[in-house]
Write a structure and sequence with these properties.
Layout (H helix, E strand, L loop, with lengths): L4 E9 L4 E9 L4 H8 L14 E4 L2 E3 L12 E5 L6 H15 L1
Parallel strand pairs: 1-5
Antiparallel strand pairs: 1-2, 3-4, 3-5
């Protein structure tokens, strides 16, 4: 009997370039396996996407290599932040207070 296939998506984005790859994978495929099968890492030179944080629909998954995907799920590959958003907000508030 043939493996049951499910449809999933893999997404990664930079400010200047975004990719969303849809693919059919065997049931039981993990997030990390889907990233590899998608070929998305070849489209982003200089990024080691396999070591990046990953999530499903905005929720970080601690162990992508163990998380089996469900039909319709979208694997999101997260890139590290260059600056802490809390510190940025605090800095902007301080600058606004000083100006005005």
């Amino acid at each position: 009997m043939a493996d049951t296939l499910i449809h999933v998506e893999v997404a990664f984005a930079l400010p200047e370039k975004q990719r969303l790859v849809g693919l059919d994978v065997p049931e039981g495929t993990t997030m990390l396996e889907a990233v590899r099968l998608s070929g998305i890492s070849e489209q982003f030179e200089g990024w080691d996407l396999e070591k990046a944080s990953m999530g499903v629909f905005g929720k970080v998954v601690a162990n992508p290599a163990a998380h089996a995907l469900k039909p319709g799920e979208r694997v999101e590959i997260y890139r590290g932040l260059k600056a802490d958003p809390k510190l940025n907000r605090k800095k902007r508030a301080q600058e606004k207070a000083e100006k005005g």
